[in-house]
Amino acid sequence: xxxxxxxxxxxxxxxxxxxxxxxxxxxxxxxxxxxxxxxxxxxxxxxxxxxxxxxxxxxxxxxxxxxxxxxxxxxxxxxxxxxxxxxxxxxxxxxxxxxxxxxxxxxxxxxxxxxxxxxxxxxxxxxxxxxxxxxxxxxxxxxxxxxx
Length: 148
Ligand SMILES: Cc1cc2nc3c(=O)[nH]c(=O)nc-3n(C[C@H](O)[C@H](O)[C@H](O)COP(=O)(O)O)c2cc1C
Known about the structure:
about 150 residues; alpha/beta; 7-stranded mixed β-sheet; 5 helices; 7 strands; binds flavin mononucleotide
């Protein structure tokens, strides 16, 4: 889970993703969470799948998540092809540009989208938290299934 969580709302959504991914009914999956400014090439190479979480900033993903992609893209290109991923964008009113940008770069890496993009606006109410948890659980369950 690579995230930029600059506010209580973003943090709550991240926690929902982590709770979903760590659902005790999903066995054999280790969940590793890294802030986008800390995550690096080794983290990406060692993971079997990815959840990305970013705010929408100026119609794009956050600078922190962009920095993550700038750092890992070429070192990981060709080595992570086909790995499953999903992502969450949170904004005030317009998440489309950020969603498009994440999709474009992940597609360039050859990652496989296994959950529809989770685009959320407003407070971390229960529907939003459920969507985050479902994203995390879907990725973890997919990894558990594919490891069988
Ligand atoms: C510099 C900056 C630019 C932003 N640009 C957008 C934007 O283009 N679209 C959008 O929906 N929200 C935008 N936002 C809102 C953030 O996405 C939002 O603050 C973030 O998801 C955290 O949510 P919260 O403020 O409700 O806690 C922006 C926020 C900042 C600080």
